[in-house]
Design goal:
alpha+beta; Rossmann fold; two-stranded antiparallel ribbon
């Protein structure tokens, strides 16, 4: 059983889970709430409200770009070109469509 399934199961049973990560894109769609910290609480709320450029810059101390894919924010740092993430997203969509056939 994957870790995410275990976390979902525990959450469904009413267990509070505190998780720290820098992998925002991998987990944001699985989390109902995020708390962004940098010596203090910068933001607290659902991913769509917390994963915004202003909050992320205050959290990480550097400008980050945010795109949306599948209704969820995708965070890009300055080293990762937007065109690359869009290419990856397009590949993922094509793969999902092929699997559905």
């Amino acid at each position: 059983m994957s870790l995410l399934l275990v976390l979902h199961d525990l959450h469904d049973k009413g267990t509070t889970i505190v998780l720290t990560t820098h992998d925002l894109n991998g987990l944001a769609s699985h989390l109902p709430r995020l708390v962004c910290l940098n010596r203090e609480v910068i933001a607290d709320g659902p991913p769509r409200e917390t994963l915004i450029p202003e909050v992320l810059e205050r959290t990480y101390g550097a400008p980050l770009h945010v795109l949306e894919h599948g209704g969820m924010p995708i965070v890009l740092d300055h080293d990762y070109e937007a065109s690359e993430i869009m290419r990856d997203a397009a590949r993922e969509i094509r793969s999902e469509r092929t699997e559905q056939r």
